Amino acid sequence: MKKQNSFSKIFQSYGTIIAGLCVILVFSALRPDAFFTVRNLINISRQISLQVIIAIGATLIMCVGEFDLSIGAIASLGGVIAAKMAVAGVPLPFCFIAPLVICFVIGWINGWIVTKFSVLSFITTLGMSTILAGFTFWLTGGSTVFQNIPKTFTYLGSKSILSIPYLSIIMLIFTVIFWFVMRHTAFGRKLYAIGGNEIAARVSGINVKKNKKLAFALCGAMSALTGILMASRLGSAHPTGGDSFFLPSYAAVYLGSTVFKEGTPNIWGTFVGAAILGILANGLTILQVPTYMQDIVTGLIIILAVIAQKLGQGDSK
Amino acid sequence: MRKRLVLFALVVFTLFLSALAVSAASPEGKNVTILTPYMSSVTTNQMAEYLKTNLEASGVKVTIVDTKGDMAQFASRIEDTVSAKVDAMVVISVDPQQFATQLENAFDAGIPVFGVDSGFIDGMMVNATSDNYAMGEQITKYLFEDLMRNEGTVIMLTHRPHPGVVKRCEAFDEILPEYDGITLITEQHVDVPNPIENARKIVENLFLANPEKGSITAIWAAWDEPAIGAAQACQDAGREEIIIIGVDGNSQAVEMIEEGSSLKATVAQNFEGMANIIAEDIINLFNGGTIEPGEKYAPGKLITAEK
């Protein structure tokens, strides 16, 4: 009887990870020659890297109980600015740093509007997303920026060190940094406190407005970084290239919040959430499952994982 | 307990679907993967389906991958297709220059890469396409000379990220200065997916800015779907004096031309011809034949109410 309870507890705490491992086992069994290989592991790590980086920013926003709809548009803008600067012959470090700074400021403006005027973040960031989409189209004339991009611009996105892609390394570095920040610094604890109960956080002396603005600004910078790295990976910057990161980012955060028993957005959870989505897309493509079926499976897994989490918490009706 | 059941159901479901996919594979047949970010486009869909039908008729197992406009996913799916060690890969409606790094992996793995309505880079086998510049030139001159009689105003509906569309736009850009009596009012980018609805909204809004009849002589649409949306907007607003042209020759556009709507002409791309070229080359390759790498053209045809 005790044994049954411990099994139940393990499932309640780590059900999503166990389900993810089962999915890996299934794919490995069906295509061991293609799926369960070092080459494909590297492949997956590279493919999920951009999703993880942008979803880290979304995690910060969800920790403070807000929502940022502009992450995709910021990523598109960041990539386009970097690519345009590279084409214009600006030294590479500036091509990477300038969009980060610009998008940090854009994120800060999002946070400022939300906190200063008590506007719903949903509406504010929707408006910002529309403005940025228009600005990006104006900047590019609607065309993809790819002609005359220097080869060196693509190194970060396409090269490896000891067979490990730079993209995967950058993803791991930022995951560890933000895990540390969220887990072991006052700033991280303040964000969780604000998300848990904003009024209580304010009463206890936390500067809610400042911390929220910083969360939005960091989210903007992470989105820009994603756009820059995507432009580097593809050797081109598409004016709507970042848009597609938006929904999977929040799916990764939600899925990630079911990974550990806390049930709150957390950095490693987001990493695992993005990894599960990436593994599904990779494995199902390798198995040559039609695209529509991939969408159905991915959507079902997200819903089932969240239901499972709720059942685990015992708060389902 | 309920949670365990849900998780169990999840794993069983994934297993079932995956097993279904694997059992559907013909062990003797070759595997070809078709990749595109634009499956929701009628014409891209037609090309993929023509190709699939032709290849399956020869016993080839075909998988279609659509990334719904997501270019980063498209790059990832190319990598996955290389990992899957398919016998051939076909990309539809994308510029391979933008995915050169990923396609290099396919070339290195010895996977033959074909294109339909795409571009061509070294390492690919064949890209079958229309001469988009020639089609843009043909429809633009027909509009300016035969329909507009060398004078009036024109609105451009474009989507320059598409490799074929941008060539047609370049033809327009180069021809326009040769006609002093014709003025470009504005160029508007039409978002995809859902270009018909998006173009319709754009044109409705442009009517607000140009309310007088005769203020807009023509609408030049870079492909048929925005042309259809523009024609619907003209009909609703009673602005049927506006002349609209498109490119592609999709069945809905041809029907509207025949019915006498504002949509007056299109240049039919030979999508079936492009798909047939690639299907024949792939089958030829699988039969041990050799292929001359490069671009192959399926000629276009001007369609009007008269012809």
What's the short story on this structure?
The complex is a heterodimer of chains A (317) and B (307). Chain A has 13 helices and 2 strands.
How is the secondary structure organized here?
The complex is a heterodimer of chains A (about 325) and B (about 300).
Chain A: H1 2-30, H2 38-63, H3 71-87, H4 92-116, H5 121-140, H6 155-158, E1 160-161, E2 164-165, H7 166-184, H8 186-196, H9 198-203, H10 208-234, H11 246-257, H12 267-286, H13 291-313
Antiparallel strand pairs in A: 1-2
Helix pairs in contact in A: 1-12, 1-13, 2-7, 2-10, 2-11, 2-12, 3-4, 3-5, 3-10, 4-5, 4-10, 7-8, 8-10, 11-12, 12-13
Chain B: H1 2-23, E1 31-36, H2 42-57, E2 61-66, H3 71-83, E3 88-92, H4 100-108, E4 113-116, E5 126-129, H5 132-147, E6 152-158, H6 163-175, E7 182-189, H7 195-209, E8 218-221, H8 224-237, E9 243-248, H9 251-259, E10 263-268, H10 271-286, E11 294-297, E12 301-304
Parallel strand pairs in B: 1-2, 1-3, 3-4, 4-5, 5-11, 6-7, 6-8, 8-9, 9-10
Antiparallel strand pairs in B: 10-12
Helix pairs in contact in B: 2-10, 3-4, 5-6, 7-8
